[in-house]
Design goal:
- By secondary structure, the chain is mainly alpha-helical.
- The protein has a domain at 12-65.
- It has helices spanning 12-38, 45-67.
- Helix 1 (12-38) packs antiparallel against helix 2 (45-67).
- The chain is elongated.
Length: 85
């Protein structure tokens, strides 16, 4: 069982999947934007601009409302930390 203090999304697998999806979407949109800017005949700005805005907004919202509350108030435990659970 997960022992993080989060009450928004308690399941760590769900948190991981959402982070992976948002991160992957951000990387794909960034790559598409770079290709769009580098190759003049390609013009995907009508897609990449709004997509980047949506993904960035969702990633920021998720980070502030789900990830940040899961960070221990006293900092991250040392690497050799052993949980008593």
């Amino acid at each position: 069982m997960d022992t993080t203090p989060n009450v928004v999304i308690e399941n760590p697998n769900v948190r991981k999947v959402v982070n992976v999806v948002l991160g992957t979407a951000g990387i794909i949109i960034s790559a598409a934007t770079i290709v769009d800017l580098a190759i003049e005949p390609i013009d995907y700005a009508f897609i990449t601009g709004p997509a980047a805005t949506i993904v960035l907004g969702l990633a920021g919202l998720f980070g502030l409302s789900v990830t940040v509350p899961n960070v221990p108030k006293n900092g991250v435990p040392p690497l050799n930390y052993k949980s008593e659970v």
